[in-house]
Amino acid sequence: MTDVTTGQIAGAESAAPTSRRVALKRVLGPAHVWGLGVGIVLVGEFMGWNFAVGKGGAIAALTACWLAGILYTCVAMIDSEVTSTVAAAGGQYAQAKHIIGPLAAFNVGLYLVMAYTMLEVSNAIVTGDLIEAFVHNMGFVGDLDKRAFMALTIVFLSFLNYRGVLATLTLNYVITAIAFAAILVLFVAVKPWAPGETLKHSDLLTGLPYGGLGILAAMHFGLWYYLGIEGTTQAAEEVRSPARSLPLGTMTGMMTLLIAATLTWYVCSGLMPWEYLGQAVTPLYDAARLTGSGPLELLLFVGTLFATLASANGCINDASRAWFAMGRDRYMPVWFGAVHPRYHTPYRSIVFFVPIAILFAVSTPLDQTITLSILSGLLGYTIMALGVIIFRRKWPLGSISRGYVHPLHPLPAALLLLLCSVTYLAVFLGYGTQLLAMMAFYIAASAWFVLHRYKYCRRGDQFTMPWPRPKGY
Amino acid sequence: MKRTPYEPPAQPVLGQVFDALLVLGLVLVTLYLPLLLKLAGSGTISDIADKPSWETLGQNPVMAGQWEKLGFDPASAATIVGTRFDYSFSWIGFAVTALVIVGYFVAMLRWSDREYRDVIAERFGENPTDGAAPER
Predict the structure, then answer these.
(1) Were both Cys, which of A6, A470, B82, B84 would link to A394 (CB 3.0–4.6 Å)?
(2) pLDDT in tens, A69-102
(3) DSSP-assigned letters across all residues of A338-400
(4) How far apart are CA A249 and CA A169, in angstroms?
């Protein structure tokens, strides 16, 4: 294992025309990949998903949960094939660079950075709100400035990431497991085998308050159940055996999330009126409070806190790696492409986002930071669907070595495109101006890249895989 | 025939700082400012009763019991219950949004392909032969 290699990066043997290329440590196994994926996403069960209830009612949210599950199954299938073949830091960014082209790669890099940074911000907001609510429920009287906890969360986790990836991802694995266990304990504690005793679905489920349109609108926040599972690919350059570990870690992560999402919906919709659930900041913690059990409330406080910390931790890891990869390729200033001489982490990229994250955390509402994250993720999934079609066309099966081949192509890509289109419409319903603001950001950034930034990029260096010439080029 | 590699200009440190700040500025202007000025965000309508009861809010006894466990009374719950998303549909707004999204992807893919051809020409040479090994 080396930190500075001479062409030993997986799939990038011919990458560096220069003799030495900066690379990250290869220390991660499938459990870390699972921990990174589920760790980022599991927080989606503890907060944010319930805004789907606000947009369409509880039944609509369940429908959205399953539809989003199909969308993410397509994402996981496609991502496993492409990532196990293009295993380099930056994940989807590196893939877009090899498959579609520089401008698309630049945009995908930005999607990743914005999606994960806004998810990190959302986690920090929830951490602050949760601590405030818990302290007051414990009988504290007086004012507590939750913004201090938001800022502290971001600074502390950024420092952990600055110090080293193995320590932070091992920590992620442990606290993710505890958070998942908290959901399972809550599910058992509400006695799902005795309907009406604790869970009161028959009195609380009220159909579709917005009619069929509500199901469509709920897809917007339905993505939150799983958003970020594709983050497993960000650490591709740090995984010991990408062809095995990435598909295994991603698909088991997806199964974990499908189970957790359904359990979460079942418990919360049986305990809270939909109007409350649709705007709650910490729904699972509230569900525990409604059981009247002190130990359960404490467990879900810890579970929610751990889930948000694990997610924010993984987000800092992923956003910084995407930014690092862009800096290394000169899509962003090369200053960001540096690795810390002692800790071997992309430390400048980590530090750069701290002030942005704090600014958004202390001054914007949760549903809007979540929407910014979802929109960036959604744009990335759209490109992913188009990308895999282009990938198979440029390098048909058999022309290059693939770590994993996803079945039924192009059905997953077509289904993913369809579900992405539905989700754009869902965001348009209620959050149309935010959708346009986000598009304005990416259009302006693209113009900047084309007119200014791309001139600093070496053309031939954009293609580093040891593959034959793409078909048709 | 292999194309002469493009040699990019070196970017001075000040230029790098400027570029980094420009990206930050873009985030603040396009994403943060609209939220700060409340130009973006959720579109809702409110219908809040003056002297609400659980019955007028459409809450059955079980729902009312859960609200109370959560620390709400009818007056404090009325704002939450009475606020709904505004799904009134503007076809013009929809058409503009759809055009922006589709136009963005089409332009991005076309421009990327143009850049990609340069990358491939520099990496593999000008005269393509499908399946040929890359030139070293």
Answers:
(1) A470
(2) 899 989 988 988 888 788 665 678 888 999 999 9
(3) ---TTT-S-HHHHHHTHHHHHHHHHHS-HHHHHHHHHHHHHHHHHHHHHHHHHHHHHS-TTSS
(4) 14
From chain A residues 360-389, the ones with a CB under 8 A of any chain B CB are 360, 363-365, 367-368, 372, 382-383, 386
CB contacts of B133 in chain A (<8 Å) are: 468
Please tell me what DSSP assigns to residue A197: T
So what's the pLDDT on residue A41?
A: 82
Domain ranges of chain A: 29-462
Measured CA distances, A73 to A69, A391, B135 (Å) = 6, 19, 38
The single-letter DSSP state of residue A239 is: B
Q: Say what the alpha-carbon torsion angle A171, A177, A182, A183 is, to the nearest 10 degrees.
A: 130
**How many CB atoms sit inside 10 A of residue A344's CB?**
19
* Residues A430/A368, Cβ–Cβ less than 8 Å: no
DSSP, collapsed to helix, strand or coil, labels residue A28 as strand
Contact between B94 and A428 using a beta-carbon 8 Å cutoff: yes
Residues in contact with A64: Cβ distance below 8 Å, sequence separation at least 6, in sequence order: A52, A56, A215, A218, A219, A220, A221, A222
Which residue in chain A is spatially nearest to B64 when comparing CA positions? Answer: A273
Distance between CA atoms of residues B12 and B15, nearest Å: 5
Sequence-ordered alpha helix ranges (H) in chain B: 13-27, 33-36, 61-69, 74-82, 91-124
Residue A167: pLDDT over 90: no
The Cα–Cα gap between A244 and A252 comes to: 12
- Is A29-462 in CATH node 3.50.50.60? no
State pLDDT tens for residues A337-371. Answer: 888 988 888 999 999 999 999 999 999 999 999 99
* Interface predicted TM-score (ipTM): 0.89
Look at A25-34, A216-225, A421-430, B45-54 and tell me which has the smallest mean pLDDT: A25-34
Amino acid at A331: Y
